[in-house]
Amino acid sequence: MTIAGLDVGGTKIAGAALAPRDAAVPGWSVDDVLARSHRPHRIHGPEALLDALEAAVRDLDEQLAEAGHAPIEAVGLAIAAWMPRDRESITWAAHLGVRDFALRPALAERLGMPVTIHNDADGYLMGEAAMGAAADASSSLLLALGTGVGGAFIADGRPLIGAHGLAGELGHVTVDESGPVCSCTARGCVEAFAGGNALARDAAAVPAAVALAPGGRPSAMHLERAARAGDARALEVLEGAGRAVAAGLRRLLPAFDPEVVVLGGRVMLQTADLLLPVIERELAAHAPLQGVPQPRRLELARLGDHAAAIGAAVLAAR
């Protein structure tokens, strides 16, 4: 059956439709992606969420029909939200104005087909594990630097969910207990140094970044531009972000022992040439379990804006 995956972000819904599985062909490839979509949204509240998801599925169905493919028969959803272990409901999705809503059964009823829901980071890593940067690995770990820092761990095709559905919040691993306050209210999380909001906060103290920003309110993008122009203070801030990511990985690698670490998210991918050498250097200098040889693979995410949508569809196909 044809399966759709939808990734609901703060301002957009990315969609992907995957071809019916051929039992004789193991694994997935990018050739299995039959259609893609990308549409902005202004979701606020449960009904608006259902309306937008239904419209996204219809968009994909129209593309499939035009290309002569079978219609969608199941939907997987990846969404940035707190949700319980059973993945039946949304506990809280601040950017969508949705709280305590039984999303899975409501969407299944609206669409008249099976629906699964997962955390967006689980979808992201599942996409990369199915046909991207970790496609040849049996276990993989994700750190995604975007507005915040997301994370996930997958082993043998299954994401780690945890007792309360909250496993994989790797951006909230503490790397400096006297560090900046994080969005979670703790101090010194990886996100408090390396997320896009954290970089924008630090960019405000970098004159070269401020000068590049309309209205004098710089973002991570302006910090990156200042760094690429050779500004020492901008480079220092990004150096600190890279050290924080490495410090987080030093804590995570012994705990999870992944075959591959996938580094993704908009901030990471736009600044990879600046951050990755710092991360590699710090890991080499301060490797965990130094007496034990450890193959270490760091891979940049490859599937772009549709990684989580593809992963959501793969999860729905299980």
From TrEMBL:
Segments passing through the bilayer: none
InterPro entries: ATPase_NBD, ROK, ROK_cs
Protein name as it appears in the record: Glucokinase
SUPFAM superfamilies in the cross-refs: Actin-like ATPase domain
Family affiliation: Belongs to the ROK (NagC/XylR) family.
Domain of life per record: Bacteria
Organism annotation: Agrococcus pavilionensis RW1
Pfam families per UniProt: ROK (PF00480)
